Amino acid sequence: MITGEIKTRIDQIWDTFWTGGITNSITILEQMTYLFFMKMLDDAQTTKEANANAFGVAVKDPTFKEGLWHNPDSDKDIPYEYLRWHVFKNKEPEMMFSIISKDVFVFIKNLSDGKDSAYSRFMDSATFLIPNARTLTKIVESIDKLDMNNRDTMGDVYEYILSKMAASGNNGQFRTPRHIIRMMVELMKPTLNDTICDPAMGSAGFIVECAKYIKEHYKTELHKKENQEHYKNKMLHGFDTDQTMLRIGAMNLMLHDVDNPCIEYKDSLSSDNTDESKYSLCLANPPFAGSLDNEAVSKSILSITKTKKTELLFVALFVRMLQLGGRCASIVPDGVLFGNSTGHKAIRKELIDNQQLKAVISMPSGVFQPYSGVSTAILIFTKTNDGGTDKVWFYDMKADGYTLDQKRTECAENDIPDIIARFNNLEAEENRTRKEQSFFVPVEEIREKDYDLSINKYKEVEREEVVYEDPSVIFNRIEDRVNNIQSALAEFKSKYLK
């Protein structure tokens, strides 16, 4: 758990960037991440060296070797020792600025030694943008007090920075609230046998949370070499069309101890993405707004629903990408649940008639504040290609543990634990009435209502019976008032209109 002291330090670093002229939140996050990484490399080697010295052995696979490193940009040879955080942090500001910007940054960009990895692919276009020695010195002094060896703490730090990025109003669309991501992961319960994908990954929040869930629930199993190999190199997949977000996502995963995820620059909806029947679990919050020309969209997706709307195309994509028996939990805008267009109806029919739609969790409109007030829901389904939907579980989430205004302050009202508990015990949901917060609806009724999946279509609202007075009593009261008015008018007339 991130402490108030660490939050204050991150806030100070953020303010230093602003006063130094860097105000774009994504640029701040990128530049801060590069410096985190520089310190993390040195801290990790310092720990390795201490352990090696204790046992009287050499350091295995050191990042900073003995001797000289050749800088491909300057064509100069530099001692590895000069590239280490604990060395350059003590230099004079101008000297430190020169070392970091011209040598250390080039070193971390080329760290993979030509090997293809998520890190090497997305660091290739990275640029060092901190403008001057004074700003850099202040930032380095603040970062120096953070413990980079504690991956859990660094993961929390990164999440806090992402929340600041969203709160700043810049690029908030890239961030799904962490507690909503965690809820969805806990609903889906990923296992070591899963191959997981988020085809609209942004800062990799869903992938990170899946990695954390696996580490928490499969600690013993992860000691096996084959499980560790799958977890590190094959389990976690993500795509995005924004190189900056891919770089941020790769760093986010690395800070959560996932060093080689399968993340790629890819337009998930285009014909360039040929993934079919590949993944056992998809989790995503795909783009809501916008439309695409049919020419830009893969024909196999359009065969499921012919539409230009990205929110519908992504649901069709999940169907295509999943293996038989694969599961999906995706956030969608409410319009997907009840839209009347041919595309809207086609995707709902696909989930209900051809796949197995399991749950619709309606969320309140404030969940994505402060940067969006859109109403959303979570769709949970399993790919069968043979139907299997006999009933659908609905839940009406009214609170998520935070106020639903723009401040999003933590509060006591929270349906998330209840949602998880009920979903994990659906047998007990059978006898709930439509007046309760969750209930089942048989598929026949959904078909009769034109495949509408909005909860209000099925929820029964209990209204208090209104008891009206007898009409004669009401009439007599009206008659008395009319008589009083007539008497008052007569008195006024006799007094003033003689």
Largest sheet: number of strands, sense, barrel closure: 9 strands, mixed
Number of domains: 2
Helix content: 40-55%
Number of helices: 18
CATH topology of the largest domain: Rossmann fold
Residue stretches low in confidence (pLDDT < 50, at least 5 long) are none
Count of DSSP strands? 13
The rounded distance between the terminal residues' Cα atoms is 87 Å
> Mean pLDDT score, rounded?
90
**Which range does the strand content fall in?**
5-15%
Task: Assign the CATH architecture of the largest domain.
Answer: 3-Layer(aba) Sandwich
Trace the largest sheet across and list its strands.
5-4-3-6-7-9-8-10-13
What is the highest CATH level, the class of the largest domain? Alpha Beta
